Automatic annotation (TrEMBL):
Keyword set includes Nucleus: yes
Protein origin, superkingdom: Eukaryota
Major subcellular site: nucleus
UniProt-listed Pfam families: JmjC_2
Cofactor(s) it depends on: Fe(2+)
Compositional bias (Basic residues): 15-26
Function, as annotated: Oxygenase that can act as both a histone lysine demethylase and a ribosomal histidine hydroxylase.
Protein name: Bifunctional lysine-specific demethylase and histidyl-hydroxylase
């Protein structure tokens, strides 16, 4: 077997064809013996013997009919040598890559592309040398769409080889590779809209794997450089792939997994502009047109007493620009359609801690998790409460059997709705601005007819309850806990008594109820007998307003003394300015998280 030798021509290249013997006396002056060049001794043999041949044949591949066959033979032997040898690639060969990648023969181009990939895996230094050559990078990106599908597959394979180093990935992103890949993804899926599982679209798989790799290893700020028009075209396609990712991966040997595609969707969505309305608009809608109406609520009811803030109009219209957007989130025709509308595309929303100011850190911690199914207790609870006295909650921790549980009297409680619904998110943002908070969490509760979900309890935060569809009766104890609960402290429901005085409030569609922290409450579904109703079941949202005083009453005196001494050494305005900066940093980190999670739940 020939070892590390390039021979031109090679006597055994075409063993099945008989060579013509020269007749006696024929003119053999133009024939030279086979040229043998060995790579095994020293690199100079390449520079002095092979480099001139490569340069000459590559330069004349369009004008000389023997140039392309010669190029093919040389490149085959170089590829063999690169795969076998541990020596570095000669710099003179690296310098020829731009010329080789621009030849007119598809076969020569594909061989040259393969050489680029093999050479890039030799060492980190050679990888850097190749990707630092702008002409090589531009040629590879150009070949993605200017050559044949087979050439494009070869280029994508070489790009995967190049992308083993962070430097190479940065260079490819800077050169516009991601934009080209996303454009190719749109083009390829326009021909494969149904993602036919009976056929393996290798080009689509390679495009996806390469795009996922470059996007998921970038800084989150890179997403801002992708045009929004392209993002809007790509998101539905990635969503379709995400939902069929597991099956598609098994059939087509796709490297990207569902959580990696989910991370890509998350990343390119962080800068999407989303519809919103102002806090003033929501304040006027809920509390009244006058600014003093909101102040009256804070003075008279905040942490003092439950109150029915807004009562739904008898002439209520679903086209209402505010409330109508919430109703449109669900399909209230049947209970099955409601469950489908809120759960069909739901994935787990991992918690982002309150002091997390860097979304990149969050994404690094969540590697391999985004796009995971709903997790019981973290994302969803399926619960019912029955009995006349000593009522206890009964849980049903089987998320995939929600409809069966619902038909058996269980309520569905879904957390983090501000990250799951484009219609609910604007309410969370507007309320957080109105109350001066970093964020406001939203939970959804869906209960069947004549059912109670959670047992009697109190919350460690104030709550706004907004009835979306159906009707629900609330029972609230008039006397709260003796000491207001602190945020995140352990809850103690032993203070609740069946003999305590209660306030009964029935919520109908459009009604909003305020419940202060520390007030025991429970609710069950009832029929609205006063007029037409849209559903026998009940669906309401709860907005968690996590505001509390820094100290209880007995500690206020000591705090006042400390505040007095503190203010002598610090300017109040400076403290407010620092708090504002911190609040803005937190919101800046939370907004990309919200945008990313909303796209993972979006129904394209």
């Amino acid at each position: 077997m020939e070892e590390d030798v390039v021979g031109v021509p090679i006597a055994h290249d075409k063993p099945n064809k008989k060579r013509r013997r020269n007749k006696k006396g024929s003119n053999n002056k133009g024939t030279s013996p086979p040229l043998k060049i060995s790579f095994s001794d020293r690199i100079p043999s390449f520079d002095t013997d092979l480099f001139p041949l490569l340069l000459a044949s590559a330069s004349r591949d369009g004008s000389n009919p023997t140039a392309q066959p010669l190029l093919r033979r040389l490149l085959r032997r170089i590829r063999r040598w690169l795969l076998r040898s541990s020596q570095p690639v000669p710099p003179s060969l690296l310098s020829l890559f731009p010329l080789l990648l621009s030849t007119s023969s598809d076969f020569v181009v594909e061989l040259s592309v393969e050489l680029v990939g093999v050479a890039s895996l030799k060492s980190v230094d050679q990888n850097k040398a190749i990707t630092s050559d702008t002409a090589v990078v531009k040629a590879l990106i150009r070949l993605l769409t200017s050559g044949t599908r087979q050439t494009a597959r070869a280029v994508l394979t070489a790009l995967m080889d190049l992308s083993v180093t962070p430097f190479a990935r940065d260079r490819l992103r800077e050169a516009g590779t991601v934009h080209k890949l996303l454009y190719m993804l749109c083009q390829e899926m326009s021909q494969d809209l149904e993602l036919d599982m009976s056929q393996i679209n290798k080009l689509l798989v390679l495009i996806l794997d390469m795009a996922v790799l470059l996007i998921n290893t970038s800084n989150i700020d890179f997403s801002d450089k992708i045009s929004q028009a392209l993002v809007q075209k790509v998101l539905p396609l990635l969503s379709k792939i995400q939902k069929r990712c597991s099956t598609y991966r098994k059939i087509s040997y796709m490297q990207s997994q569902v959580h990696e595609v989910s991370e890509t969707i998350f990343r390119i969505s962080v800068g999407i502009p989303r519809p919103n309305f102002s806090s003033e608009e929501l304040r006027s809608y809920i509390f009244g047109r006058k600014e003093s109406d909101f102040k009256d609520f804070l003075l008279n009811f905040w942490e003092k007493s439950p109150v029915l803030i807004k009562k739904g109009s008898k002439n209520f219209q679903k086209s209402d620009s505010i409330f109508g957007s919430l109703v449109n989130y669900v399909n209230p025709k049947t209970t099955d359609s409601i469950i489908d509308s809120i759960l069909q595309y739901s994935v787990s929303c991992p918690a982002i801690v309150s002091d997390e100011l860097d979304i990149n850190q969050f994404l690094n911690e969540m590697k391999g998790f985004l796009g995971s199914p709903l997790i019981y207790n973290q994302d969803i609870r399926i619960v019912k409460t029955e009995g006349q006295s000593n009522k206890k909650e009964e849980h049903f921790p089987f998320v995939d059997k929600c409809k069966e549980a619902f038909n058996n009297g269980y309520s569905i409680a879904l957390k983090g709705m501000e990250f799951r619904s484009d219609q609910i998110a604007p309410f969370s943002l507007a309320l957080s601005e109105l109350f001066g908070l970093p964020s406001i969490g939203v939970n959804l509760y869906l209960s069947p007819h004549a059912a109670q979900g959670l047992a009697r309890h109190y919350d460690d935060h104030c709550v706004l309850v907004w009835q979306i569809t159906g009707c629900k009766s609330w029972s609230i104890l008039k006397d709260p806990k003796p000491v207001m609960p602190r945020l995140y402290e352990s809850l103690d429901n032993s203070f609740a008594s069946d003999k305590a005085k209660k306030t009964e409030i029935v919520l109908k569609e459009g009604d909003i109820l305020y419940i202060p922290r520390g007030y025991f409450h429970e609710a069950h579904t009832v029929m609205d007998t006063s007029g037409p109703h849209t559903s026998d079941c009940s669906l309401h949202l709860t907005f968690a307003i996590e505001v509390e005083r820094p100290f209880e009453e007995e500690a206020m005196a000591e705090f006042s003394l400390f505040k007095s001494s503190f203010c002598k050494g610090a300017v109040y305005e400076d403290a407010c300015s620092s708090f504002g900066l911190l609040l803005e940093k937190y919101r800046k980190a939370r907004r990309p998280y919200m945008n990313g999670m909303l796209s993972l739940h979006r129904k394209f």
